[in-house]
Design goal:
alpha+beta, 28% helix, 6 strands, six-stranded mixed β-sheet, 207 residues, Nuclear Transport Factor 2, Chain: A, 6 helices, globular, NTF2-like_dom_sf
Length: 207
């Protein structure tokens, strides 16, 4: 993955103080980030994915020597940890090694896997394992962008897998990842309920 996301000016960074992270409103702000000038960490063209709101001109990035344009050491570490986890996944490893043992992972919506999972192992057992049981080719990520603000990294990515009935499993995800010491301690994941529900109803686990 190339590039480092510019820290947005203060005028674009104050939204999280008024909008709770993990809320639907926060997701709307996140997905509107590119249109409002928030620059992603990833050069999306390198992954063959169109940037979000590519037809809307982005605001100029802050100059490198401007205070608002510099990432803090904490932000650099958090961004690097998530970037490396995606790179490990792309290479055939697991992204979820970055989760702390007591990480809390919330999946929004009403799909069969929606809910809050307390602990890395519960998440792996009750979400990742049942998903893997329904796929002949597990999901591989194509990252659209990574953004960082303090201890929080925002990730938008496309996932492609193949179900055991031969049909593609394609999904676009938005994740809000709260970090501590290079590990994810809390996450909120947004996805398409219909895609998950269709897979669960169409392909029984262990088929």
């Amino acid at each position: 993955m190339a590039g480092v996301g510019a820290r947005p000016p203060k005028s674009r960074r104050i939204w999280h103080r008024a909008v709770p992270l993990g809320s639907t409103a926060a997701l709307i702000v996140l997905l509107g980030g590119t249109a409002s000038g928030l620059q992603p960490d990833v050069n999306t063209a390198a992954f063959g994915a169109a940037p979000v709101a590519a037809d809307v001109p982005s605001a100029p990035s802050p100059s490198p020597d401007a205070d608002d344009g510099a990432q803090t050491p904490e932000e650099q570490r958090n961004l690097a940890a998530v970037r490396e986890a995606f790179q490990r996944w792309e290479a055939g490893g697991s992204f979820y090694d970055i989760l702390s043992d007591d990480a809390v992972w919330t999946i929004t919506g009403t799909s069969p896997i929606a809910g809050t999972y307390t602990g890395r192992q519960q998440f792996l057992d009750e979400v990742i394992a049942p998903l893997s049981d329904r796929l002949s080719v597990f999901v591989k990520p194509t990252v659209r962008g990574l953004w960082v603000d303090g201890d929080t990294v925002f990730a938008e990515w496309d996932g492609h897998g193949v179900a055991k009935d031969g049909q593609p499993y394609d999904m676009t995800y938005s994740w809000i990842l709260h970090m501590k010491d290079g590990r994810v301690t809390r996450a909120v994941a947004f996805l398409d309920d219909n895609v998950v529900t269709d897979l669960w109803e169409r392909v029984p686990a262990g088929r």
